[in-house]
Specification:
It is a single chain. The radius of gyration is 20 Å and the shape is globular. Strands 1, 2, 3, 4, 5, 6, 7, 8 and 13 form a nine-stranded mixed β-sheet that branches. Strands 10-11-9-12 form a four-stranded antiparallel β-sheet. By secondary structure, the chain is α+β, with helices and mostly antiparallel strands. The protein folds into two domains: 186 residues, Ribosomal Protein S5, domain 2 (2-Layer Sandwich), CATH 3.30.230.10; 129 residues, Alpha-Beta Plaits. β4 and β5 form a beta hairpin.
């Protein structure tokens, strides 16, 4: 039997980086998805094959002889995610894991969380484990820690639940009922970044300037609270202004850069209601809030400014899993 699971990408609407320090974040699942197919194997190894052209076998938690170093680095999180389920159910099995993803890596769209969540869901289904959504959101934490050092947990939560969530570290996620359209245009700088390094850099700046950084972090939480009010009230002009403020705060803590700012300002000149980077920063993606029907104009402006645009839709469904013959 083969089992496949799919989990969506995400956009952090407000609150990234500040969420690491206990402030709230608003996170939205978007329609691009990662797909994981698993089946059992008899030799006890965990073999991972990716659509990136990489493959690696892990035997007793270690890479097999002659493993390529890049393949090990990229595919290790799949082993960690799979073994988190095996430990949870108290079993030891060999697994073949096949990876296919529509989500660009290292772009701020939550690719590592989506594949980890899908891996946990698929392995759990294959083993006959009755994993709750809470389990599926929790078990990928070690895999996310391998990638991001100190993840907030928001990415694996939104990939699990879908829709729009209010997330605060250490509290159950609150699923938001947002009826208003949230038309977004994502702009990818094409610059990969390492989330863990950026999170660490923010922590080091906080260590050097604790009073100033703590004040910015607190304001970041207040911006998210105001943004939530605007979303619930359908006031997208106000919501867009708050996105602009959030981007300014992210600039202040040192995680934006010229390529991201260029795309933000280009989208604003094209009529976006607001725009900001999404995710760790340092590259990856930004997004712009569009009026309905103006997405193509903003996408064109992002393209002319050197980015790769994607008109995004909200993914109401989170992780899904099914058996294959």
């Amino acid at each position: 039997m083969k089992v496949t699971a799919a989990a969506p990408a995400k956009i952090i609407l407000t609150g990234e980086h500040f969420v690491v320090y206990g402030e709230p974040a608003i996170v939205m699942a978007v329609s691009s998805r990662a797909y994981i197919t698993v089946e059992e194997r008899s030799d006890g190894a965990i073999n991972v094959v990716s659509d990136l052209g990489l493959s690696c076998s892990f035997i007793d938690g270690a890479p097999g002889p002659g493993s390529d170093a890049r393949a090990v680095k990229v595919l290790e999180p799949f082993r960690i995610a799979a073994e988190s389920v095996l430990r949870h159910v108290g079993e030891r099995r060999g697994l073949n894991i096949s990876v296919r993803s529509e989500i660009p890596m290292a772009s701020g769209l939550g690719s590592s969380a989506a594949v980890a969540v899908a891996t946990v869901a698929a392995v759990g289904k294959l083993l006959g484990a009755k994993l709750s959504l809470e389990d599926i959101a929790r078990l990928p934490f070690d895999a996310e820690s391998y990638v991001h050092v100190k993840p907030s947990g928001a990415d694996q939560t939104i990939s699990t639940y879908g829709g729009v969530l209010l997330y605060r570290r250490g509290s159950p996620p609150e699923q938001l009922k947002i009826e208003t359209l949230i038309p977004l245009v994502i702009g990818n700088t094409g610059i990969p970044r390492i989330t863990g390094q950026l999170v660490s850099a923010v922590r080091e700046r906080r260590d050097r300037f604790p009073n100033a950084m703590d004040a910015i972090i607190t304001v970041g939480g207040q911006v998210t609270s105001l943004a939530l009010e605007a979303l619930r009230g359908g006031d997208m002009v106000r919501f867009g202004e708050l996105l602009d403020i959030n981007h300014g705060l992210l600039q202040a803590i040192g995680v934006s850069n010229k390529p991201l700012d260029d795309l933000v300002y280009a989208s604003k000149r094209a009529g976006a209601l607001g725009a900001k980077l999404s995710g760790a920063g340092g590259g990856g993606c930004m997004f712009a809030l569009s009026r309905p029907g103006e997405e193509e104009r903003i996408a064109s402006a992002i393209r002319q400014a050197g980015g790769v645009p994607l008109i995004a839709g909200k993914a109401e469904r989170g992780v899904e899993v099914w058996e294959e013959c």
